[in-house]
Amino acid sequence: MSLVSIRDVRKSYGTVEVLKGVSLEVAKGDVVAIIGRSGSGKSTLLRCINGLETYQFGAILADGIEVGGIHANMRELRRHVGMVFQQFNLFPHLTAAENVMLAPTVVNKTPKKEARAIAAEVLAKVGLSEKMDAYPSQLSGGQQQRVAIARSLAMRPKVLLCDEITSALDPELVNEVLRVVEQLAKEGMTLILVTHEMRFARDVGTNLVFMHHGKVHETGKPKDVFAAPQTPELQQFVGGNG
Amino acid sequence: MTYKLEFSALLPYWEDLAAGLWFTIVLTVLSTVVGIAVGTLGASARTFGPKWLAGLVRVYVELIRNTPFIVQLFFIFFGLPALGLKLSETTAAFLAMVINLGAYSTEIIRAGIEAVPKGHIEAGVSLAMSRLEVLRHIVLRQAFAKIYPALSSQIIIVMLGSAVVSQISAPDLTYAANFIQSRNFRAFEVYLVVALIYLVLAIVLRYVLRVIGDRFVKVG
Amino acid sequence: MSDFSLWIIVKNLLWATQWTILLSLIAFVGGGIVGLVLLFLRTSQVKWLEVPTKLYIEFFQGTPLLMQLFLFFFGVALFGIEVSPWMAAGLALTLWTSAFLTEIWRGCVEAIPKGQWEASASVAMNYVEQMRYVILPQAMRIAIAPTVGFSVQVIKGTALASIIGFVELTKAGTMINNATFRPFLVYALVALIYFCLCFPLSWYAKRLEGKLNVAR
Description:
The complex is a heterotrimer of chains A (242), B (220) and C (216). Chain A has a single domain, classed as Rossmann fold. Helices cover 39% and strands 25% of the residues of chain A. Chain A has helices at 42-49, 71-80, 96-106, 112-125, 141-153, 171-186, 198-204, 222-227, 232-240; strands at residues 4-13, 16-26, 31-35, 57-62, 65-66, 81-84, 159-163, 190-194, 207-212, 215-220. In chain A, a hairpin with a 2-residue loop joins strand 4 and strand 5 (65-66). Helix content of chain B is 77%, strand content 0%. In chain B, helix 2 crosses helix 4 (89-114) and helix 3 (69-79) crosses helix 4. The longest helix of chain B has 35 residues, at 14-48. Chain B is elongated and about 75 Å long. By secondary structure, chain C is mostly helical. Chain C is flat. The interface between A and C is medium-sized, with 27 and 18 residues.
């Protein structure tokens, strides 16, 4: 059974249709890399999966929960679907550890002490044990993004959505973040990533999705797709990206 | 509740209400025009004038902004005659409104002037414009465009505040309300209706100010 | 015209000042509490909560405070309740203050980047939790300066309570003037006392604003 199931999803902003019937199945342990030009609808699709955007037609099921259902359902859904953003979006008034502890204590009612242990564990996982009590403003972009990943992991999500998580970083800070994601993939975490890092998509991804004009244009095993793109659009896109 | 609301008790007095409303409108329009002129002079003096004048303007602004309008009004109407300056109710009301709005708009326009990039002033001077021409065509034009929303809000606040002039018997809308309720003993109905008239007036004024702003003040 | 009579005037005005201060505190604290509740309703994105809140704010911001005082003074009596100037002034000023504080604070909430809402939503927090733990702690920092600034308007607003017979600083001034016939002196003193109450707050608000701009 699929962990995330997207069926013929359509979405428009006014008269502009940004998703024109997207279907996608993601099984447990999959690492799905979504690529495509800006404006192809890939970020919108990702944001639909945890309900940050609504869609007008079709259905998305994540962990058996229908996205866009009643309010209580959304809360249950988001407990199991984590998200990491391009701009990190750390809470600036809280330390790294407090950023990580907030949702477990508030949403899951985990006792403070236990939450602190979870924070220590997930921050160690992203290599930031030393920075537990640092504020976001005292961290580099790469470190902030790793805290953001830890913040999502603390909720023990079944699937993690990553929305261009290295795009806002200086080039020399990209790898420290990608290494963390690669490690998560190795441990069997289900990941759906919108990314511009083609090499990373090829080496780490189990599935590749090329989106074009609001549709899944081409999909398959990354190595096959990159070696022999079937459509001229993907050939051009891959060629253009080196 | 045994009390029954009787709005029809207002009908015989509609002419009083109309006269009061007209007074409030005229008072607001006149004191807005003169008040903003005072504010423009004040703001120019505060930023470009000699030190003593800038200091004087500052004292004026702080004094007015940190005391209630009703006290300013009473001081002008009751206090000044002691110095031999006797004013009619209407003149005192107008003067108090001008002085009040003058102080607030000085502060608002000053903020706008300070937001104009120094380079624009230098550019104007380098085009052989006089100081006054630079002030008028470059600085104030931009300043007004920037602070127009803040100034509009202040004008509405001053209009609503003008209800207080009824306390020195200036014949405004509130004065009419007081008069009517003393006749028909329907205080709640009268004040509710008049409150709603003020609300409509505020909404219309906001709309008019926006239209004026779009027409004449906008830049870029 | 001895110095003695001046001293009596000042003493009486200062005595009345305590009621101005007390009424201001009631209005400000009460208005703050009501305003916070309204803020939650106003920013809830739930239509049937937002629309009545909007109308409430429109009414209290769009009508003269003096009318509101009259309405409470004469309106509450319709329910058969004996209304003291205290009650009418306290109620009217509280609700008037709450409308303005709600709007000031809404501006601060809207200044918080959208990403903060999205990030907190994506870790399954609900609206109240988002406000309480993520948005308000940040909004509060930028809200302090304009909130302190508005407290000056509240103090000045209490002067209107004199019109419905509440004996505070302005009313005391009028009464003393009626007894001494020295309007110039009395109203100048009244203004001076208001200035001493308000100016430190204005000054502090401006300083806070300056600090915040530097910090950014």
